[in-house]
Design brief:
The structure is a single chain. This protein has 5 helices and 4 strands; from the N terminus they run H-H-H-E-H-H-E-E-E. It has helices at residues 5-9, 15-24, 38-48, 63-75, 83-103; strands at 54-59, 106-111, 119-124, 130-132. A 4-stranded mixed β-sheet has the order 1-2-3-4, with helices on both faces.
């Protein structure tokens, strides 16, 4: 991948730009809640087979944020997700996140708790250490080591 860690940690490239560079290199993409083990196994298998993997993870500080956004989406004509499913998936997703970050070569974690939009929480490039961007939300505190 053309993105190198030194460039990403300099002030010349923003975390958002680093994420865009990673996305540009993507060949296929899946959108999942990361609440089951199927995709962790898929990531492990891909790694074993020599594929490069990337994770874009969007978290929120509280389940109620997700529930209210799904309600708003439904009112706008979008699809519903039962509250029971949201509740079950929310915790499972956060429990699977540390393993997923360990398995991927590249990763961008975004916090989408604010009505103002998302912000970068962490970036992992070239399979190396994860770089944090303060303030780190509670759901990503495990990244501190």
């Amino acid at each position: 991948m053309a993105v190198d860690l030194q460039a990403q940690t300099s002030s010349e490239v923003s975390p958002i730009e680093a994420g865009k560079q990673v996305l540009t290199a993507a060949e296929s993409c899946l959108e999942k809640t990361l609440s089951g083990n199927t995709y962790l196994k898929m990531l492990a298998d891909a790694r074993r087979l020599g594929y490069r993997t990337c994770l874009f993870y969007i978290g929120t500080e509280d389940l109620s944020i997700n529930i209210s956004r799904v309600k708003a989406r439904v009112l706008a004509g979008g699809h519903d997700v039962p509250i029971e499913d949201q509740t079950r998936r929310y915790g499972r997703s956060f429990r699977n996140l540390p393993k997923a970050i360990e398995l991927v070569d590249e990763g961008v974690l975004l916090d989408n708790s604010s009505a103002l939009g998302h912000r970068v929480v962490a970036v992992k490039l070239e399979g190396r250490q994860v770089h944090l961007f303060e303030p780190v939300p509670q759901w990503a505190a495990f990244l501190r080591g």
